Automatic annotation (TrEMBL):
Keywords: Oxidoreductase. InterPro entries: KR_dom (IPR057326), NAD(P)-bd_dom_sf (IPR036291), SDR_fam (IPR002347). It comes from the Bacteria. SUPFAM superfamilies: NAD(P)-binding Rossmann-fold domains (SSF51735). Residues 6-191 form the Ketoreductase domain. This is NAD(P)-dependent dehydrogenase (Short-subunit alcohol dehydrogenase family).
């Protein structure tokens, strides 16, 4: 119960890591405020949290909308009276194409979600987090660790998110608020399973073969699952990491060493 009786706000609650974050925080003893654009998905995850014996308050919100972000803050404080943790999981992937040809408007849109929205939401929650000596965790990506073609625009936005987290750590640390980053690689969830099935059919091989080809590049020979990545976030939110701030923890099964 590392987060017993704490309140954690999670943005970008989808069927993969977002759901895993909500459930692992609940298993660790936290009540949660869940934000996403899909109301039905929010209701499903909130029901699962309730089955674990914790409270979940869903907020249908687009984090690039200022009014929606303020509604998240108001709902959290009206429902629980406090906020101990904030997890930025919402993200946007710009077109996966070379920087020489990528649509700059699409890149700007990705920066709006991946970086500026995270900053805006953090600003709004800062007074509540200062009151509780709280913790912020930003979900980044293993794209930080490589420079493969077509990933340039995505890496730009995630590198900016890392810089944001580190700078906020310096600014908010004197007020008792910690800011850290968790950077997963592939996460073995529904979207990736669909993609591997697609690749398998395209190549005329089994999905297991595609999985094995990717897993062999990891030290642990196994792609991390949502709960495993979420556990790293729980650690960063918890008192066990009370002296950890400004750090980026890679959760990739050993694909990259940093």
């Amino acid at each position: 119960m590392l987060l017993e009786n704490q309140v954690v706000v999670i943005s970008g609650v989808g069927p993969g890591l977002g759901r895993g974050l909500a459930l692992q925080c609940a298993r660790a003893g936290a009540d949660v405020v869940l934000a996403a654009r899909n109301a039905l998905r929010l209701a499903e995850v909130a029901k699962e949290v309730a089955q674990l014996g914790r409270r979940a308050v869903p907020v249908e919100a687009d984090i690039t909308d200022d009014a929606a972000c303020q509604r998240m803050v108001d709902t959290a404080l009206e429902s629980f009276g406090r906020v101990d943790g904030l997890v930025h999981n919402a993200f946007a992937i710009p077109p996966l194409t070379d920087l020489a040809t990528v649509d700059l408007e699409a890149v700007r849109a990705a920066f709006e979600t991946n970086v500026l929205a995270a900053l805006h939401l953090t600003r709004l929650f800062t007074p509540a987090l200062v009151e509780q000596s709280g913790s912020i965790v930003m979900i980044n990506s293993a794209v930080l660790r490589h420079s493969r073609r077509t990933f340039g625009a995505y890496k730009m936005s995630k590198a900016a998110l890392l810089a944001l987290a580190q700078s906020l750590s310096t600014e908010l640390g004197p007020q008792g608020v910690r800011v850290n980053t968790v950077a997963p690689g592939y996460i073995w969830a529904d979207n990736l399973k669909w993609y591997f099935d697609y690749l398998a059919k395209k190549r005329g091989v089994s999905a297991q073969e595609v999985y094995d080809e990717n897993a062999v590049t990891l030290d642990l020979r196994k792609l991390p699952e949502p709960d495993e990545v979420a556990d790293a976030v729980v650690f960063m939110l918890s008192p066990l990491a009370r002296a950890v701030t400004g750090q980026c923890l890679d959760v990739n099964g050993g694909e990259w060493h940093h």
